[in-house]
Amino acid sequence: MSALKETNSLDFVSVLMPLYREGDHIRDVLLQVQQALASANVSYEIVLVDDGSPDNTWKIISEEAKASSAIRAVRLSRNFGKESALCAGLELVRGDAVIVMDGDGQHPPSLLPKMITLWRETGADIVEGRKVTRGKETLLDKLSAGLFYLVWNKLSGFQLRGASDFKLMNRRSVDALLQMDERNVFFRGMTAWLGFDRVEIPFEVATRAGGRSGWSFLRRLKLALTGISAFSTFPLQLITLAGFVFLVFAFVLGVETLVVYLTGKAFSGFTTVIFLLLLIGSCLMISLGIIGEYLARIYEEVKRRPRYVITQLVEVPANQQKNYRALSAAASR
């Protein structure tokens, strides 16, 4: 199937899929995506970003890219993380609209025509896939996700409950997102921060097509800390608030200590002092940890290291570049 050979004025849509250890099932997912796009009456490209997978993911997607002019395969030098892989893909996509989806089949390809139709009919900048159910998860995953969204929504002022990375973005919103040159990337939060007109499309998270998720609890925790520190300074302000609270405690304790001293019962507050020392010590350590987290983010940003490194790229053959440029010009009119 060679979508890039069409030269009419159809919308040109890019599908971006970051991949990590998806070799067992990526061919099946690709087939479903291509079938869905074929029924949507669009010209398209599929950009596959291998985020340093240790399995045969790169071998398979490079073969697919060589066999089809509609597929482009990108390989990162190591595992930089899904957010960085998304940035790599977004800087390479060429479509009038970009659909971001996972390569594990949990974002249903059957919804692609509906997303495209909704984008065309509403003129919205972003068509947001919103989870109706989260699929099969452990109790710990559900509780931790619920706690994160509760905290993030309150601190950032944006509503992300039920949000996902499964979304269609028009060229304007993609270009705006690429202007956010930060190293600590939280894709869902960044698209929410952009604003723009958006519509939602509900979906149920499907069962993984195969393999196992690369999202361990520690990876989720790291992403959660990145999301909170990148979009809210409230934890730093909370330290100041805690300082004022303890100032009040210190004043009350000072008065109590003076009264005890004057009445000759100086030893009666020993337990209270030990308790307060432990409490204040714990709060100080937590406060230093919060400050350290923000300092670490600043340190990572000022180094200005690239968010990713590309080692290999398999894309449209040179003898088809002319066809692509003609299609791109037609789609932009």
Structural class: alpha/beta
Count of domain modules: 2
Q: Which value, in Å, is the CA radius of gyration? A: 25 Å
CATH class of the largest domain: Alpha Beta
- Give the overall pLDDT as a whole number: 77
Helix content: 40-55%
Percent of sequence in beta strands: 15-25%
Q: How do the SSEs run, as a string of H and E?
A: EHEHEHEHEHEHHEHHHEH
Question: Would you tell me which CATH topology of the largest domain applies?
Answer: Spore Coat Polysaccharide Biosynthesis Protein SpsA, Chain A
Give the number of DSSP strands. Answer: 8
CATH superfamily of the largest domain: Spore Coat Polysaccharide Biosynthesis Protein SpsA, Chain A
- How does the major sheet shape up? 8 strands, mixed
Question: Based on the structure given, which CATH architecture of the largest domain is correct?
Answer: Alpha-Beta Complex
Provide a count of the helices. 11
Question: What oligomeric arrangement do these chains adopt?
Answer: single chain
Strands in their spatial order, largest beta sheet: 7-5-6-4-1-2-3-8
Which residues sit in consecutive blocks of at least 5 with pLDDT less than 50? 1-9, 321-333
Q: Could you please describe the fold and organization of this structure?
A:
The chain is α/β, with parallel strands linked by helices. Helix content is 50%, strand content 16%. The chain has eleven helices and eight strands. The protein has helices at residues 26-38, 57-67, 82-90, 112-122, 139-156, 171-178, 187-194, 217-231, 234-262, 270-303, 321-332, and strands at 12-19, 43-50, 71-76, 97-100, 126-133, 163-170, 198-204, 310-314. An eight-stranded mixed beta sheet has the order 7-5-6-4-1-2-3-8, sandwiched between helices. Mean pLDDT is 77; it is low at 1-9 and 321-333.
